[in-house]
Amino acid sequence: MLSQVQTQKQVHKILPQQIELLHFLHLNSLELEQRIQDEINENPMLEETGGGTEEGADKFSKEAIQDFQGYEEYAYDDIPDYKMEYKNYLPAETIPDRPLADTEDFREDLKKQCRFVALPEEQYALLDFLIDSLDDNGFLEQDAEALATEFSFRNKQWIEASDVEDALKYLKELEPIGVGTRDARECLLLQLKSMNTKRPDVKMAIHLLEDFFTDLRSCNMEKIKHALQLEEDEVRIIIRLISTLKTKPVSETSAVNNSIIPDFVVQRDGEDLEASLYRQRSSSLHISQSWMEKVHSADTDHTDKATRQYLRNKLSAAQWFISAIELREANMLKVMQAIVQMQYNYFLTGDIMQLKPMILKNIADKVGLDISTVSRITCNKYVETPFGTILLKDLFSEGLPNKEGDAISNKVIQNTIEDVIKSEDKNRPYTDKELVTILSAKGYQVARRTVAKYRNLLKIPISQMRGIWS
Fold first, then answer.
1. Distance CA 100, CA 332 (A)
2. What pTM value is reported for the model?
3. Distance in angstroms (rounded) separating the CA atoms of residues 414 and 453
4. Are residues 432 and 310 in the same domain?
5. The domain spanning residue 429 has which CATH number?
6. Is residue 427 part of a domain?
7. Are residues 431 and 383 in the same domain?
């Protein structure tokens, strides 16, 4: 039996353009550049204005009359060749402020080293596969069975896990020492075995890592001294030797490019601070005039419906894209100006002790935006200041009351803990309870578990470990 039912309900829907705008806020400078280039390649309606002036453009246009058309003036030109060749590759407007470093990935260096090892030709393919399977720290996380299966299916050549283990022996002989190991323990052992193993401290360090690594990680020094029958001074020498080794085969600084392109710039003019965007992109984007004329002519000419719809969609998408970039930049600038206003003393001096407690809600209330919007704007963004480039998220911190009842940023307390530990007696380091007393004398009322939490955030070991490693 058919029946009709009438219902009424409220549904909250988000337009796809609004979702895309939220993604725009999350992008940093490099990601935004890539997004703009992708949009320009996909949408013929969208164009980007060049960096040169109109006068410069007219000077080098084909229609402009050139003064050096005569062969004599061209042939005997005094301009050095290197200047003309340089301009062929890099426009004068985009000359970098400093030389661009030519960095090579450590995997490429390992592959070059492999070619100096006398191996069968088919073995090089397996070694290259293992090198590409290394993570950014140089560790090989997958087991031999999984690696053998993946290589077999990828190259249509069946190999066993034993073949992978044989290839790993050659890989572990390459530089830097430790590549191809599974974890930090194996990496440390490989470095020790490359030393003079007849030395007593090296021999004992290998024995310690092979049989008592778990006890070493948990700082169970009494058990280690009793098991190895060593004095405290001897254990200290062994620990000091181990501390000189690398826990990762490849350091982070050599694996990645540390150049940072900031999103904001804060400049100081006397006692005034001015916040601005590092690069404003909305002013360089515009709608193509020739394609705009095609849209207007398509409405009047006898153009088929599909073509007219295509042109209108592309025009609408280009107009929305430009307005989205403008809205992104306007909101970013408002948020940055509000942060500078709240942290005026910090940006004026660069002293972290001047940092005030600040959470996302404080900025959201100031600029009239949602907290999630402020979070997206400040996430993964950097600001260039007179005292260096800093991550914007580092300026946000919770507050703790001091003796006077004023709120103090937890970044200030962390910095104080770090300074106290740096100046402590290395033979008798402070415990967390003693750090609580010292902070209380400085006017900061902090619980012991809070001190332990901040110490762990600063990656500072406990007092017993600091005493051993000193």
1. 29
2. 0.56
3. 10
4. no
5. 1.10.10.60
6. yes
7. no
